[in-house]
Amino acid sequence: MNAVRFGRYALNGAAGLSLGFILLPLIFVTWLAFFRQEIPSFPPEGYSLQWFTAAANNKPFIDGFVLSLEVAVVSTLIGLALGVPASLALVRHRIPLGPGVSTLLLLPLVMPGIVLGTATYVFQIEVEIATQIPVMGSLGGLIAAHTLVVIPWVVRLVTASLAGFDRSIEEAAQNLGAGPFTTFWRVTLPSIRPGLVAAALFGFVTSFGNLEMSLFLVGPGRTTLPIAILQYLEWKIDPTVAAASLIQIVLIGAAMIVTDRYVKLSRVV
Amino acid sequence: MSFASHPDDAIRLADVRKQFGDTAALAGVSLKAKPGSFVVLLGPSGCGKSTLLRVLAGLEQATSGTIELSGRDVSRLPPAQRGISMVFQSYALFPHLSVAENIVFGLKARGVPAADRAARLKDAAALVGLGHLLERRPSQLSGGQQQRVALARAIVAQAPICLMDEPLSNLDAKLRNEMRREIRALQQRLKLTMVYVTHDQAEAMSMADQVVLMRDGHVEQDASPAELYARPATRFAATFIGTPPMSLVRLTAGEGGAVLEGAPGHVLAPAQAAGQWLGVRPEEIVLSDAEGLPAGIAGAEFLGGETVLSCVIGTGTQVLQVRVPGLCALPVGTPVRLRLPQTLHLFDDATGRRIEDFPSNLASPFSSKDNATCR
Ligand SMILES: Nc1ncnc2c1ncn2[C@@H]1O[C@H](COP(=O)(O)OP(=O)(O)O)[C@@H](O)[C@H]1O
Ligand SMILES: [Mg+2]
Question: So what's the ipTM on this one?
């Protein structure tokens, strides 16, 4: 009995430690964002909101935010458009080399960002040389690369949703007079909606926060928010960066909470 | 039975085959159904009932053969164009839609005007007693209620033919009996041609106008419940119908005709029947004090209204089951006498088929007085 109780305490303790380990940086960033002085030092000399104003008036940050948003939205949509059919094919049909294809589609998730960035960089240059189309440093090139890191989330979450899918509801729809398209749109997609929403959310966040790969691919005058922050940090270490980070954390946190109201993320991820 | 095309038949299948790789799920099925009749596909699990239903509905493409509905060849038509509604075993309700949306899904898909939809929804919901649950999601309903939604969704389509695949298998026994009667009443009221799948022979017998007994992908017997009970065409049919099913015992050659092993004095059939199988319905055997086939009690199973006795014949090993009314607590080993009925069934040992011209007068040497007792 005591051993069981001890085990439970130990487990709870370990969970608490991990949680603290994850939260600590967030807590420090949050705290730092409100410091009054420019050079972060402890204890703070006082508190102010000036760094939020500074972040909101920083043109590279604003431009970076808009670009990151654009890229993340478009690449998430493209990732869904490619990943959903791919998942359907993988789950429902015996396609040749199915497991291989599946692994390939999940690979960008585990590949180090630097490796992915280098590979994409070299590839885009080769394409540009071969076709004379300016790919490198273009918005299209950046979106294509980001789509690559969105797809694994879509494939992972949507295949999981499809695996437990009762296909007789699609047959029922067809029996009731729905064609293949109506069946897909009105029965299949709504049934895997939790997986789709989660995939969109995680795909979006992954793209939005991507730094390593983007570093290789941005062109002059086209900088994503993470890169803008990095560039700012090369010259200054004042809490403007902390303020900008806090704004992002709040936005993403809010998105998660709103999403979780509609689909329970803990059930699909 | 002839399988010539006839517009009077609501359904007509001719030599329908369905192959899944090496398995022949349907090995040449032919059958006909009259409009407004209740046809039950009966058979053990894996015999191809669901496959036949799915081929009919167009959810599965037959490997060969033709399917005609009211004289129209639909073999190549997609499910939506066959004029068939269907109730699935799992109900297959749309989890993301309310009960009302589930029911009108098909009407929407077919472009029925909204006003018409509302009226038909109201009718269908009332018919199955769902009026008060229309706004719920399927996950908020009990199994029986989900079953009713599936039923309403099928009948609202007003298709002349309705298919049901073991629709009651997920319900408890009491609800099952209730739904049996309701489905039968609904079918008669709406004059539907129903094809209903079950592996429960009691369900089949109680609901059907026509029972299609299947085995290993082919039709074993296609007949009315009364015919199936009274004249099973094969040994398989004989042992599939009845509670308990017909007992089968092997006849051997004896003095003066065919007898059962261990009871040499009792001739049951002409001599040429030796080696064939004798079938007797347990409810038609009568326990007797004085006369009849000598047997010993080997077991008794009390079912409430009746008792099923297993009786070993004479000094042999073959067993006949006997169904007697009420409680009959005879201890194992008690000697009894069994009076066999007029109607005995004889089946060929090699083919398993019924032997038709079986002189039944010879078969029942024990007929007249009824002095059955259960001590
Ligand atoms: N999609 C399928 N693929 C392969 N074999 C199948 C498929 N559907 C059914 N079968 C096989 O066909 C036979 C008949 O199945 P089914 O029609 O489901 O039987 P029942 O409904 O009478 O239990 C079984 O042997 C089953 O394994
Ligand atoms: Mg089945």
Answer: 0.82
